[in-house]
Amino acid sequence: MRVLPVGDRSLLVELADGTEAQALHAELLRRRATGSLRVREIVPAARTVLLDGLDEPGRVGAELPAWEIPPLPPRAGAVLEIPVRYDGPDLADVAAHWGVPVPEVARIHTAAEFRVAFCGFAPGFGYLTGLPEHYEVPRRATPRTSVPRGSVALAGPYTGVYPRASPGGWQLIGSTDVVLWDHARVPAALLSPGTRVRFVPDSTSPAGA
User: For the residues of 32-45, what is the DSSP string, one character each?
Assistant: First the structure.
């Protein structure tokens, strides 16, 4: 763990990997909820956690490396289901990379339970972990100039759903009509760090037949 000051009242904590970052994020939330940590925002990323608006950044920064961080707690709370049509243009490429028939991609993807590790890239975009390590896939060699809204995609260890049309280099395996970001909704983002997610075959998907 490395703790870096950011401005007058913030700290950036660097961890070894995503699992450590998620465990620290959960512990920080727990301490804030009990009142033992006073901080305005706790923002996780791939291997870092930002604490913004600390009351005592110097004290917290000095004490943090000595904290005992318990492993990520068992997943709790309701599971959000996202219906997916497994019809993405990169489905065959992902199947070849995994060494399985094309229909097996949907079965593998829907069998896993995911967790939102962190959010970023675009409003409403969550980086979801849950697939075993051997199912990691590389980004496309040439990114697309426009990925349609609702595209379900894979890159490295993550699954993501594009909340709006944008450029992107992830492997597209399907699509969904679920709205990830809605200004009229409270909160506007459907996904937040820690949310449990399952992808289910849409009735119109080949996997749902």
Answer: HHHTS--EEEEEE-
